[in-house]
Amino acid sequence: MTALLTTYVLMWPVIVLGILVTIASGFIRDIRTAKKEGRPII
What we know:
Layout: H1 2-37
């Protein structure tokens, strides 16, 4: 039971990290595209 609870608790930081990496990579891609086209990001 303890191993199952430990796995459940440690799973959430991995999920959050994956989502954060996805959002950050999309943002960086948008910055590069805007810079290439010569338009402001905001």
